[in-house]
Amino acid sequence: MYRQKYLFLTPGLIALVAIILFPLLFTIRVSFSGWDVYNPGLSWKGGQNFSRLMADSRYWAALGRLSVMAVGTVLIQYVLGFALALLVWRDVIARRFFRVLFLVPMMTTPVIMSVIWRTIFHESLGPLNPIIRGLGLPGVPWLSDPVWAFVAVMLVEIWQWTPFMFLLLLAGLLSLPSEPYLAARIDGAGPVRTFFSVTFPGLAAISVGAIVIRLIEASKILDTVYVMTSGGPGESTETASYYIYIRGLRDFQIGYSAALSIIYLVIMIVALTIIAKLLVRFLVRPAP
Amino acid sequence: MTHQPLDPEPRAPVSRTLKLALKYGFILFWSAFVVFPFLWALTTSFKDANGVTNGATWLPWLQYQPSTQGWASLFGGPGGTNIVRPYLNSIWVTLGASVVSITLGTLAAYGLSRFTFRFLFFRNADITFFFISQRIMPPIVLAIPFFLMLRALGLLDSLAGLILVYVALLMPIAVWVMVDFFNSIPRGLDEMAWMDGCDPITTFFRVILPNAVPGLVVAGMFCVIFGWNDFFFAFTLTFTQTQLLPVSIVALNSSVTPWWALSASALVSIAPLVLLAFVVERFLSKGGLAGAVR
Asked: Least CB-CB distance to B250: which of A19, A127, A227?
């Protein structure tokens, strides 16, 4: 009767292996080939793509930029999401209305919202600069200045994904037991003390989970950049995914882009594993 | 699970008022930030070329002459693109991929939660990790092999091809949610059914599945959100026959973008999932998500 257990697992496992593992192995093989527009096919070039990659400063710059963007947006999302979750957790007017409202951005299609944001950031016709000028500040060259374009992409990411942090942290807050809060009150702990000794430790595990999931998703940033800036101006908003996209699907250097993406994948796995381990060590206290 | 209302700390009235002002100030500021792009898209969708080039205006009749050109273009007016077909395509792909992912993912999750597996040196925890870790894979890594694979299967630029690819993206989510959910259902339930003479498959369908509906809803929501909102694979794996919604809207985005058509079609295409926010909130406030995210 236990033989039936394979009926549960195998269909899903086989589907996933077929759809993902073979393409991945294929990419690894392609990364050793000189496949491009002129020589399509699986020739053997050894490690040439990889030595070219090592010297490709545009690639490493894109990876560095991606790290700043991913870590920066995720930390801001975490702080804001936590603040919003605390604000609509308990005594607040129209609690459920605000909860729905704060969830809405994560339901919207990132690429479609990016198209809307692009019109918002438009220097002369968009609505943002008039508001900024109304506050007495000079207008901002949102998408034509390297630094501001980077800020604009980060703003859109924060708008889109703070709700995800909010969702997980609020779910965590709502599942906290109420006894420790009573105990804290009896001990005369103020709100700040209570937060750091009861609320935050109670949410540490969920925090780590939420941050790691968001870092994973943020490490893939491509849609927003593609629509809003196409990596520009110059290469100022070019992320790793976007650079690989240009090399592979625009320039058709299939072999080289395969090498780029394999190294990208390895770096992401290593970096995310280290970050996850560090977060667990520093945030989650061992059970007493 | 709700909290006992705890009386606020007794405070001096001034600092209490200040705190309340800060609290609601921030809530209102964030609400404005959230709503801003939607309101802008809404007002832009009623403009015409004149209304747009006159600069950022918000109020119809007072600041610009409203026009229904943008909304008419949803059905293929001048400057717009007919989004009825892409809309139906998106619905089919999202629902198809979600149903397949949840079916396969739920079965696998139940197996992983209740039985012990060993393939070579892979055990349950490794297999679960293998499923979930697929989310780490950046889409760009798979784009080219997917392209070649679908071409070999004759599924390029087709609904079936996209569903196949999306199953790989969505199944990890379904497994992730459902393994946790099944782990929270006591094993005693299965054992009782076995003692009554049910085999594992009957047990699963008759006893466990009816108890797993909240988990299925959460998994389904996440699958629909990620399926409906994907752009990259729809963009690289289809051309003209099978356009999905995000692709056809991004196609409007060029140097001379018809902002009115863009805004109207954007609003129409995000509308169904915005409604999903109400469902998520219901689950959240009733505590139904707590088990799923832990």
From this structure: A227
**Which position has the token pair 């509308």?**
B271
Residues B18 and B100 in one domain: no
Q: Which domain holds residue B43?
A: 13-75
CB contact under 8 A, A12 and B270: no
Alpha-carbon gap: B152 to the closest alpha carbon of chain A (Å): 13
Residues B113-151 have pLDDT tens digits of 888 888 777 888 888 888 888 888 888 888 888 888 888
* Fold of domain A31-283: MetI-like fold (1.10.3720)
DSSP B62: T
**Spatial separation of the C-alpha atoms in residues A73 and A79, rounded to whole Å:** 10
Please tell me the distance in Å from B266's CA to the nearest CA on chain A. Answer: 6
Task: List B residues 215-244 in contact with A (Cβ-Cβ < 8 A).
Answer: 225, 228-229, 231-232, 236
Mean pLDDT of the B246-259 span? 80
Question: Cα separation of A115 and B263, whole Å?
Answer: 9
Instruction: Kindly write down the DSSP assignment for every residue of A134-182, as one continuous string.
Output: HTTPPP--TTTSHHHHHHHHHHHHHHHHHHHHHHHHHHHHHTS-SHHHH
| Beta carbons of B285 and A96 less than 8 angstroms apart | yes
Is residue B155 located within the same domain as residue B182? yes
B78 Cα to chain A: minimum distance (Å): 19
Interchain CB contact of A245 with B (< 8 Å): yes
**Residue B289 — pLDDT band, cuts 50, 70, 90?**
low
Q: Is B50 on the interface with A (CB under 8 A)?
A: no
- Which member of A99, A109, A219 has the closest CB to residue B281? A99
- Is residue B231 domain-shared with residue B94, that is, in the same domain? yes
For residue A159, the model assigns a pLDDT of 96
Where does the pLDDT of residue A287 fall: very low under 50, low under 70, confident under 90, or very high at 90 and above? very low
- Partner-chain contact B280 A103, CB within 8 Å: yes
- Tokens at residue A119, please? 């019109």
**Residues B156 and B60 both lie in one domain:** no
The pair of structure tokens assigned to A80 is 């804001």
| Residue B4 touches partner A, C-beta closer than 8 Å | yes
Q: And the tokens for A198?
A: 């009861």
**Interface ipTM:** 0.89
> For the segment A111-147, what is each residue's pLDDT rounded down to a tens digit?
999 999 999 998 888 888 888 888 888 888 888 899 9
Among the three residues B75, B93, B124, which one is the final residue of a domain in this structure? B75
